[in-house]
């Protein structure tokens, strides 16, 4: 597995997590304090979440995760703060797969 597969997942995990927090705050402001509109924030988060799903699925396919683990990682993108805890765990698990896939050096 190439390292950019993990890097793309990590970047999108954090971006999606931050936008989910922004969206949650906007929902609280809208319905709790009757201020603001959430349309633009929800659309941005929706697009970012789709990209996150694609990258997480790509990582899961290349890491040969079972379907349950893939669903767990995808669900972390839907729960505020969850990605901040799931992403480091997934990165620790995926790093050895990158090291194993590195090309062997030619011996003379």
Automatic annotation (TrEMBL):
Alphabetized, the UniProt keywords read: Cell membrane, Membrane, Transmembrane, Transmembrane helix
Give the highest taxon in the source lineage. Bacteria
User: NCBIfam families from the xrefs?
Assistant: integ_memb_HG
From the Swiss-Prot or TrEMBL record, give the protein name: DUF3817 domain-containing protein
Pfam families for this protein = DUF3817
Keyword field contains Cytoplasm: no
What phylogenetic lineage does the species belong to? Bacteria, Bacillati, Actinomycetota, Actinomycetes, Kitasatosporales
The protein's location, in the record's own words, is: Cell membrane
Q: Which residues form the DUF3817 domain?
A: 6-92
State which residue ranges cross the membrane. Answer: 12-33, 39-57, 69-86
Q: How does it sit in the membrane?
A: Multi-pass membrane protein
């Amino acid at each position: 597995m190439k390292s950019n597969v993990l890097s793309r997942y990590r970047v999108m995990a954090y971006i999606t997590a931050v936008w989910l927090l922004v969206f949650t705050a906007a929902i609280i402001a809208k319905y709790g304090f009757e201020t603001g509109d959430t349309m633009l924030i929800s659309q941005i988060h929706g697009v970012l979440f789709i990209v996150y799903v694609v990258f997480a699925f790509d990582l899961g396919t290349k890491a040969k995760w079972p379907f349950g683990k893939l669903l767990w990682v995808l669900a972390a993108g839907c729960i505020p703060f969850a990605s901040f805890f799931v992403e480091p765990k997934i990165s620790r698990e995926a790093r050895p797969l990158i090291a194993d896939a590195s090309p062997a050096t030619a011996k003379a």
